[in-house]
Every structure is written in C-alpha cells, then in structure tokens.
Amino acid sequence: MIEENAKMAGDNMLGRLYENVTGTVPESMVLLPGAGSGRRYYRLRGSETMIGVVGTDAAENKAFIRLSRHFRDKGLPVPEVKGVSDDGMNYIQDDLGSTSLFAFIASGRTQGVWSDDVRAVLKRTIRVLPAIQWRGAEGLDFDAVCFPVGAMDRRALMWDLNYFKYCFLKPSGLEHSEPLLERDFMELCDRVLEHDTPTFMYRDFQSRNVMLGADGSPWFIDFQGGRRGPYHYDVVSFLWQAQARYPDELREELIDEYIKAAQPYVSINGDVFRKELKLFVLLRTLQVLGAYGLRGLVQRKAHFLQSIPAAMDNLRRLLDDAPEGMDYLMETLRRLTRLPRWNADKGAGTDMTVRVNSFGYRKSGIPEDTTPNGGGFVFDCRALSNPGRYPQYLALTGRDQAVIDFLESDGEVGRYLDHAYALVDMAVERYIERGFSQLMVSFGCTGGQHRSVYAAEHMARHINDKYGVRVVLCHREQGISTIYNARR
After folding, report:
1. Domain containing 64 — which CATH number?
2. Is the Cβ–Cβ distance between 485 and 470 less than 8 Å?
3. Alpha carbons 9 and 442: distance in angstroms, whole number
4. Is 348 part of any domain?
5. Is position 37 within any domain?
6. What is the pTM of this model?
7. DSSP H helical segments within 293-374, as ranges?
8. Are 188 and 326 in contact (CB under 8 A)?
C-alpha cells in the first residue's frame, strides 16, 4: 500500500508540474511502456504534449537534469527539462515522439534488410556522437554532476566486471577459478584505462536511447549514467548493440563515419582504432551480459532473457578474433559459450518444427495435435493474474505493451515461464538428438486473449533463439499466425 501511494503521489505531481509550466491541466496522462529501470514515463497531453518522469533515485534524476541543461547550452540535441519537483523525484520534459532508432531499424534487425534510408539515419546518428563526447565535456564538472561516479576508473570497471561474474557467469553454473579470473579482470582494467580520454562517455549510447524527429534527425535520451571516459566505449555500445545485429560491412562504414566526424576534435588512425576497439567490445559485452543476467536470470524479466542469445552471439564473434592476453578469461568465456543453455546454434540445420499455440479453454478447448507422433505440452495459464478482469485491457491482447507490463509487474509470469522453458528445452534437445520432426506446445487461459498469448509469444521466440529450429506460432482465438524460420 505504501508503494502504491507513492506511485499515486508521483503521478499527481506530474500533473501539477504540467500545470505550472503550461497554465493548464493535462487532458490525459498515459503510462508508457517500461524500460530496464524502475522509472515510470508518462505522456501528458493538453495545450502541449510533454513526457513526465517518476524516478526512483533523486541523485540519478539530478544527474540527468543537470546534464540535459548542460548539453542544451552546448547546442546538443537532447530534451529540455521543463519542470522539476522540489524533492527531485519527478520532472517533465520535451516529448520527442514515439519513434526510436531501434524501431526504425526493425527491417534490418529482423530481416537483414538495411535500406539506404536506414543507413543514412544511422550515419547521421553516429556523426553526432563526437560532439556529445567532446563538446559535452567542455566546462562539465564530472565529479559534481555525474551519477554514480564522475569517471570510468578502476573501481567502476570492476563493478561492471563483477556484475558479469555474479549475475551471469555464476548463475550459468560454469565452474571457474576466482583468483585467475580476478587477475585477468585486473589486466583488462589496466589495458582499458591506457586509452582514457577527457571526454564525456555516454555509457549507454545505443539505438533504444535515440529518438527520431519527423525529419529523421536524432535526439538523445537516457544519458544519466554518463561520466568521463574513453571515447571508444560509446562507439562499441552503439555498433555492437546485441539486438541491433548490424552486419560487419555496415559496422565498418559507421566506424569510418565516426572517425571523420571526430576530426575536429582528435586525429584517429583507423587501423589502430579498430584494434583498440576489441578491448572495449569485450568490456561492453561482459557489462551487457551482467545487466541481462540481473534483469533476466535474477529478476526474471522476459525481455532481458530473450536478449541473451544475441549478446552471446556477439561474444562468440569476439572470441573468434579476441584481444591478446588474458588467457584464462578468454578460455572461461569460450567454455561459457559452449554451455547447452547458451548454445544458440544448437539444432540449426535440423528439419524439426515446433508448433506453439495459445487458446481459450472457454472457446474450443485444447488444440488438436495433428502431427504424426503426437504428444507435447499443454500449459494452463489460469493461475496467473488475469488482465481480462480490468476494463482497460479488454480490447487488448498479450501482444500489447500495456498487457505485457501488467503481467510482468509482479514477476510471477517470469517464474512460470522459467519452469515451462525447462520442460520444453529438455524435450527439444532430446527430439533433435533422436531426429524427431514435430513438437507441439500449447498455452491456455480463460479466453485465449491475454495470458496464453503472452506465454506463447515468449516460448516461440525462446525456442527459435536458443535452438535455431523452425517455430510456427498460432494464436487460435485471434486467428494470427507467425513463422520463425530455422537459422541455417
């Protein structure tokens, strides 16, 4: 109850801030899809449209607000903060629209189609990065403004590396030597810090944190974790974002664009720079896996669990051309990529098809299995909290973000799916070994609209991501089918 009252107080404060800025009350305030943090974002509409933020940490909010104002003074494209509550927990800012760069590049991420328009926007985006790094650092008191630390020093690097060790490596169940791993972590820190520069390091410079204006111009958000640090790091954060899946030739083009855009600030030798980037690809990949481990393996958030296979693919490619030295760390990472649970290529090239269904028990009952061998799984989702009991969700399905947020809010659905994954994974692995061609997995709830749809969507992606086999997803009550092709 205390937590709910705090949420209501924050929501009411946004309305008051909006009224203070515009002189009118907002006509509507809509909660936007959540991200990795606990912050809540709202779109407030009325005489103006603004974004309201209810934070979880006043110091983190303060860092964003001060950085935003500093960057705007430097002419950088970031949102303007319009109003802040007295306690610093709530603020309102410019509405930059609903199109993120991540959404804009969907055809490339999902289909491998990187059109000229998409390439042009990516180049336009990375050309702004040097200005953020160098101009953004001018006159900035890093220690006074940045959160939680002013610079990427040894202590901050070890936080990230231990984040990987405790939230990803250990939960993966891989045996390792603590002293040898610590030794190589220290070597990695030393080598990264050799490239330290007095520039602003955005730290999470990636396509989800870039919003596109109507003319395709990029605007930048979520830089509150920034600090002083090497400019290499942001290049890697952007170009090696796991779920962006940039092809190597496009990544090379974008590195060239960055080098040209950085010329007013620094002279970069392309060959040397590319060699140096390998260290930062390793560092960033470990940091990302640590974050995915915390949010996915520990907190059971499905979005982060689904992101792990792409990050592991990045790690495999890195290990094919790894930085020199740190032999124990590299061997540990190679063993990690060979674990069955992270072996994204397992099953690729087989002729197996997994059919995943959602259905309503009140409709036509359990789907009939028409495959030759029969069998499979039927999971009952009716023990999960039911969005269908609330009017605002009646016209939505488990594919809609509002329903996804509802189901994920208490962590219950993550634990449910974790058990389902374990059972289905065992069957898929045995079926592949034995040459079986068909498996059916069905999820049912009362109406086949919310809980079963959510679970079926996540199971289909999980199987395709982890095993590379063909998956046919069918939402029977909606008449929707999707095919996830086998990865050859």
Report:
1. 3.30.200.20
2. yes
3. 41
4. no
5. yes
6. 0.72
7. 302-320, 327-337
8. yes
Whether 327 is covered by a domain: the verdict is yes
Cβ pair 297, 167 in contact under 8 A = yes
- Give the type of residue at 378: V
Cα(174)–Cα(198) distance, integer angstroms = 38
Pairing of strands 40-45, 50-54: antiparallel
E-strand stretches of 60-215: 81-84, 90-94, 200-201, 210-212
Domain harbouring 245, CATH code: 3.90.1200.10
DSSP 166: I
124 plus 211 within the same structural domain: yes
Q: How many Cα atoms within 13 Å fall on the side-chain side of residue 2?
A: 0
pLDDT digits (tens, 9 = 90+) for 332-371: 999 999 987 786 444 444 578 999 999 999 987 899 887 7
Distance CA 192, CA 152 (A): 10
237 and 193 in one domain?
Answer: yes
118/217 same-domain check = yes
| 283: Cβ contacts below 8 Å, ≥ 6 apart | 157, 160, 161, 188, 192, 233, 236
- Tell me, yes or no, whether 378 and 305 share the same domain: no
What 3-state DSSP class applies to 483?
strand
> Residue 372's pLDDT is what?
65
Residues 130 and 21 in one domain: no
pLDDT of residue 347: 46
Structure tokens at 219: 């605007």
Average pLDDT, the chain: 90
Instruction: Write the pLDDT tens digit of every residue in 12-25.
Output: 899 999 999 999 99
Q: Is 422 exposed, middle or buried (0-12, 13-18, 19+ CB in 10 A)?
A: exposed
Q: What is the mean pLDDT of residues 230-250?
A: 95
Quick one: 313 and 281 in the same domain?
Answer: yes
* φ, ψ at 41 (rounded to 5°): -115, 135
Is residue 347 domain-resident?
A: no
Domain count, the chain: 3
Once rounded to an integer, what is the mean pLDDT over residues 104-113? 87
Structural domain for 243, as ranges: 101-342
Using one digit for the tens of pLDDT, what is the confidence trace for 111-144? Answer: 888 999 999 999 999 999 999 999 999 999 999 9
Final residue belonging to a domain, choices 40, 68, 94:
94
